[in-house]
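User: Hi! I'm working on a homework problem where we have to compare a predicted structure to a textbook description. Could you give me the structure for the chain below?
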Amino acid sequence: MIDPLPSFRAWLFAHATEIDALLLDVDGVLMTSRAPMPGSRELIASLREHGIPFLLLTNDGCNSPAQKLADLAHSGLEFHTDELVSCGHALEELVAERGWRDETFFIMGELGDPCYAVTAGLRTTNDPAALAAGECSGVLVGEKEYDWEAAIVGVFNFLKQNPQAPVVVPNPDLYFPLAAGRLHASSGSTVAFVQFLCRNYGFEVEPIFLGKPHAPIYRHAHRVVERRVGRSLAASRLFMLGDSLTSDILGGRNYGTRTGLMLTGITSPALLASSPTKPELVFSSL
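Assistant: Happy to help. Predicted C-alpha cells:
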C-alpha cells in the first residue's frame, strides 16, 4: 500500500521543477456533482499565480466542452476554453483521419449541446429506425437519459448486419462519481453490454475508445500543452492527477506521464490496495 500524502498542492510546489505541465481530471478531483472539491479553487489560483501550465482532462462524454466549462463556472471554478480537453476533442481528429465527414452516425444518448459529433463534421440521428433503414455508417455511444432498450436493440441488430461498422465510444468509463459516494453507470458499461450481446451471438465488436485510459485524448492534450508553452515536452515531464485507477492512472502510465491518485473520488484505499494498477503517488486532498 502506498502511503497517502496529505496535500497535492504542498507536494507540487516542493517538486515544481520536476514537472512541465499538469493534466487534471475534473470529476472526483476538482468537483463532484457540480460542487467544487475542497481546495480546488486554491489549487487553480496557485497554478495561475506561479505560471504552471495545466489542462483539464475529462472523460465527460455527455456534455460539450462549453457545457463542462459552464458547470465548472457554476461551482466557482472559472477556466478558459483552451484549458479543457475532453474525450470529444479526439473525435475531430478521428473523423478527419477516417474520412467520415458528412457521414451519418447513430448516437446512443447525447453528446453535448452543441453536439461535438456535429462539430467534428458528422451527421447524427437518435432514431433507431435510421439504423434499420441502413442510413447509418456507424454508432456513437453517448450518455444521459435515453431509451436504453430501444437504442441497444437497434444497435445490436444493426451490428448483426454490419459487423465491421465503427462503434465509437468517447467516454470508456464504466461509471462516474455522484454525491455521497454514489456511482452512475456510464457509456463504457453500455458498450460492454452491446459487446456481450454480439459475442454471445457469434461475432466480435471492437469499439474505438477516445478517452482515458486510451491514447487519443492524451495525444491531443500533449499537442495542446506543447502549443501553449511553445516547445516540445517529454511525456515523462507531464503529471496526470486523477481519481480513477483504470482511467487516469492506467492511461497516464501507458502514455508515459507521471501519475498521482486522489482519494476523493471513485477509488477507495481498499480498491487501491487490491488493484494491480498503482500510481506513483497518492494524495488525501488537494
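For your comparison, note the following. DSSP finds eleven helices and 15 strands in the chain. The mean pLDDT is 93. Good luck with the assignment!
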